[in-house]
Amino acid sequence: MKGFDPEYTSVPDYILKSTRRIWEQRGMARIHQYYSSDNIVRTAMGLTRGVDAVIAATNATLHQFPDRRLLGEDVIWTGDDDAGCYYSSHRIVSPMHHRGDGMFGPPSGRRVKARTIADTVLRAERICEEWLVRDHGAIVRQLGHDVGEFAAQSIAAEHERGQTPSVFTPESDVAGSYVAPTETSEHALMYADTLESIWRSDCRVVDANYNEAVALELPGGFAESGRAEATRFWMGLISAVPDARFSVDHLIGRDDPGHPRRVAARWSVRGTHDGAGAFGDPSGAPIYILGISHAEVIDQQIVREWILIDELAIHRQIRLFKG
User: I need a surface site. Which of 25, 190, 211, 317 has the fewest CB within 10 A?
Assistant: First the structure.
């Protein structure tokens, strides 16, 4: 890895070690070591810049969930050794207990488990750009709340504190320096084409490209199996946003020894909440969905898929539009 200490034997090794040292070992000061001073972090809840914002967000999360684990399930990556630029998509599952005040309210003591996928751009041993999707919907549900009602409560609480509620949209984005490479692997292109076909409401592609017993890890902490459940999930999103404009914004295909073929896709949707579906009664709100998916592919069929969107952020967009 050009520009990285020899202790890091690969991109996954760097990602897993840096995550463990910051989170598992509670080395928040080491964020200065692993993040560039002018880094850009994009989450569905908003955009931040700089190391201080990363440290503040980490401290706030650990105050609410002091025993939070970050168990790395996979790191799917691509890179250019000549340029010393790498891109990783890191899937994490976090078991934890709610034991501190914060965005989820007074401590409940409840145990929750939720996934995160973090897409990061790495240069000179630093994270300089990040797209982060947390399954806030899973956390909210496991704490006993309705996601839509909790979105309204969180906005009201922020107004009471004199804060301006935020969400991430393309209008609030800033330009980064990373340019996505062209992905050519057959299984990655198949997966991207599958997503694009689904968002064109052509769900015949599910029967063609999903294994009959596909294992699905869905937003909200739900686990399902089979083509019918895959179709049901996607149709819930599509029906909610009938004028959806879908885009695959980054695509990685890996074919590593000891693994099925894997794909990481970062994608986005812009449209209007004009239909009944995943987000309740139509509101007419303009919404933006930031999504990241991982998939395992055998014989050009999707055998397992992890899909993440931040339902809480989407409900916040709807509530802010309704006023």
Answer: 25
